[in-house]
Predict the 3D structure of the following.
Amino acid sequence: MEQLGPGDPRQVAQYRISARLGAGGMGLVYLARSPGGRSVAVKVVRADLARDPEFRIRFAREVEAAKRVSGVFTAPVIDADPNADPPWLATGYVPGPSLTSAVAEFGPLPEDSVRMLVAGLAEALVAIHRAGLVHRDLKPSNVLLAVDGPKVIDFGIAKALENTVLTMAGSAIGSPGFMSPEQVTGGAVTFATDIFALGAVLVFAATGRSPFGTGPTPALLYRVPRRCPAEGSTIPSTPPPLLRAGTSCTRTRRPHPFPAGSSTSPPPTAPTCARTSPPSARPRPSTTGR
Ligand SMILES: Nc1ncnc2c1ncn2[C@@H]1O[C@H](COP(=O)(O)OP(=O)(O)OP(=O)(O)O)[C@@H](O)[C@H]1O
Ligand SMILES: [Mg+2]
């Protein structure tokens, strides 16, 4: 959390801004208070996106869908104005660090905590999918750790950025290390897309590393569709059941906790790692099955 600077707003609609929580691909996020005293996080959209009328239409549509999500492990979407200048979105403030910050500060989570985390995230995905939404950007920075469990944020709104950001230099959205192969290759995004990200988040929580490593975006975008695990993504101290659960979610055919008949068609078959890949980037049997 940072103090407000001279360029930061003091008020957004009826919300009184008190501090800056951070910045992401869509804009800045502020801590604010509603007239009734509720703490909220107000995401204020970047000026260049706000100027794009197509973005506003998509943003309005995705925010409406996100408002229908209700669950114990999702931060509620409370209010939004896609027509404001700039557009904004208010969600319930979650007091607690993101999974990214928690792992950076304390290292990988203990096994019991990983199990509780993943159970909460799976329940959050059920609530999101029940509302007809695919999260599309489940990753450690979109998981906040509150005392009563994890809270998923930013569900669905990444869709508003589609066709917008790809054409804008220096404004990559999302973390390629947690994107599914079908997102990287432009395939159909389904509920199963979020299951891939769930597995990647599980591996991150248990090992402290993304399953596809870090590094330049092109390197990650190469590894993900080929299921090429990063060096060290299977460290010996990680409990095998956790890694098995994580890697089962990142296969082509993924488990899904949804009722029969829901649209969870598997994503297209993945290409394989090229022979020229360095040894650490070659697929291993434990992570490349279907
Ligand atoms: N509801 C909330 N409660 C508490 N903190 C929040 C909430 N929503 C967002 N934040 C915080 O605001 C900061 C910026 O969030 P933002 O979603 O813009 O960035 P990001 O997740 O890192 O990137 P991306 O744009 O790819 O999602 C993060 O540190 C996040 O933890
Ligand atoms: Mg976010």
Notes: Residues 166-172, 259-290 have pLDDT under 50 and may be disordered. The beta strands are 11-12, 15-23, 27-33, 39-45, 77-81, 88-92, 143-146, 149-152.
